[in-house]
Amino acid sequence: MSQANKKRSSSGDASKTKKIKTEEAIIEEETVDSNLKERFIQIFSEPEFSGGVSGSTLKERFRSDYPNLAPIINELTSQSRLNMSKVGDTELFYNLVSEEEASQFNGLDASARMVYQVIERAGNMGIWTKDIRRATSSRTGPASCSTARRLP
Fold first, then answer.
1. Which of 19, 41, 83, 113 stands the most exposed, by the fewest C-beta atoms within 10 Å?
2. Last residue in a domain, options 76, 97, 118
3. φ, ψ of residue 115 in degrees (nearest 5)
4. 93 and 112 assigned to the same domain
5. What are the tens digits of pLDDT across the range 96-142?
6. Number of domains the chain contains
7. Could you give the CA distance from residue 111 to residue 136 in angstroms, rounded to a whole number?
């Protein structure tokens, strides 16, 4: 075998090895992400966090994995499984929503979801439409959202 053929065959083997290593890394990354997602969801089942988890608690619990939570939070939020609210001026607070409740709000955009969160926080005290618009910076009223979706 000539020198040129040896170089071609050895460089071809190297690219195959890189592809295999890349596929293994992707599989490992997916496994790590699913484990991280399970750990994230598991926190909400702990009795002390039944009312939700603060951002600072997540930073403390996940430490070096904390930056990797962003895609998980985005995924759960887009599935209407996670609600976020502000406590004070800077602290974010996360609440996990059951799958049944999330299915009611599936397909709503972020502003409509925010309207429902504001109404939910008002509880049995009631809330004026003007206050909802102020709290959500929304131009559309909550009635149009609920009648379009036939929600209570």
1. 19
2. 97
3. -60, -45
4. no
5. 998 888 888 877 777 787 788 788 888 888 888 888 888 877 666 55
6. 2
7. 7
